[in-house]
Structure prediction request, 592 residues.
Amino acid sequence: MSLNAHQKRTGQEAIEEKGWLAAHKWLILRRLSQFGILALFLLGPLAGIWLVKGNLNYSYTLDLLPLTDPYVALQSLLAGHAPEKLGIIGVAIVLVFYFLVGGRVYCSWVCPVNMVTDAAGWLRDRLGIKGASSLSRQTRYWVLGMTLVGSALTGVVLWELVNPVSMLHRGLIFGLGMGWAIVLVIFLFDLFVMNRGWCGRLCPVGAFYGLLGRWSPVRVAAPARAACNDCMDCFEVCPEPQVIRPALKGEGKGVGPVILAPDCTNCGRCIDVCSKDVFAYSLRFNNPASTVPPSPAPGEAK
Amino acid sequence: MKSKTPKTSAARRQFMFDSARMVCGVGMLGLGLGLYAKQSKALPALALRPPGALPEDDFLGACIRCGLCVRDCPYNTLELAKPETPVATGTPFFNARNIPCEMCEDIPCVKACPTQALDHGLTDINKAKMGIAVLIDHETCLNFLGLRCDVCYRVCPVIDKAITLDLQPNTRTGRHAMFLPTVHSEHCTGCGKCEKSCVLEEAAIRVLPPKLAKGALGEHYRLGWEEQKKAGSSLIDESRMVDLPDRLPEGAVLPGHYDPASGQTEALRGMPGSEAGAIPSLPPGLGGKP
Prediction:
């Protein structure tokens, strides 16, 4: 299967059908978002234009907008320390924002490590490296729980001692030091040891944001799932492929087309790579049990 | 994923094994992190926290590693610890020998802090306790060698309170004074300007965490002279005090000494302000008798 898959690369069909730009639309927007946010943070230290101060743990924009990472704030709270007023306002803003747009939008549209692991995933695909070892995707929730309990027990913001996400982001802004080595380890881990190992199985930050977006209204859906031709490109390209099946293949089971699993990062790659335009951003309420449209025959798939 | 209860016993066993594996793995990771957390509380002696920083134990729980204090410090004193720095990663610190704290009156670093890691109750920078300066090396300090370097004393923002010059006779020359820089912990903020400006290759005066710099009296200790001042009189009945005659070598004289046996006080000589007059031209043992 791997040989066949690599003769026709993932997303090839979409590029032929829709053109390269349309087949990479959300990917490009996502990279623009990730680099743009990083650029805003770097504008101060590099160019002396202080629009944003701080880093992803807490930032203060234009002396007006505080943003606090709620996961870090929660660990600090469990360690026995509440933030100041601005810190609390920052937590509230971030909670509301990610609750609305989808918790793991943080992972796919903001987090700098995502670019590292996406690069590893892409290279892994190009080199045809197949999974060596695997770990349950639930592991991250255990790690999340461990960091919360651990923070309470040690009185230290536990995950921040080793968190590669903040190490990379803070490092790029305040000086990386040996932080690059940790990032390299994650890259190599994802490339050689475990497919989508870091973001998909271990990172408790993603797990936290996933839970935060458990009931987020903005979701990816497969409203045109009847047009699916089973090319499997969406499964190939998705960093959390387990989330797609219920929505895409749920027609017969009375399951609606909206991807409700909190692990979905709303990255939109499935929208890009689908030559049949099966997927689209949608709202979770827009979830009828059946989506068979009157015009195309549902049995089109070979 | 595991929402359905496994039906068969094989599946149940597998589920139990998988869960056990996960708990063990994550538990080991947690144990490692916990030990690392414990280690990270040991702040190196020369890494100083910003003004108003909570004690290290609390600081690591309150600081969210945002770096706002670093940004708002006008003198680039503060930096965030990098992964290889022996300070908890991402937390702010400074090294006085590199850039000391300039003790801004408006304390912008504390104002910028979105948590209580830097105590917002600190509004007077002179009350800060980043550490306590200690004149750590009496062998190389130029003033201890009898010179008048005085630099640490001159640069101290709390001059004459936090650092004073303590006059001592220079027993080496026998005719000079030594002006010993002396730190008074109740006024020292630990800004580190003394350490920064020490002219030696390695600073003889260094700012240390209060824990390292200070001794502590036993809880039950009372300083008699202070208690006496508070009470307005001696706490003991002095008339009933027995002062035994002092044994002195034959012919020895102890200036200013009260000898209960004779009821006399020896004339005080050789000390500044003594009624015995001028300081002797030569101290005992170096020629002419005073």
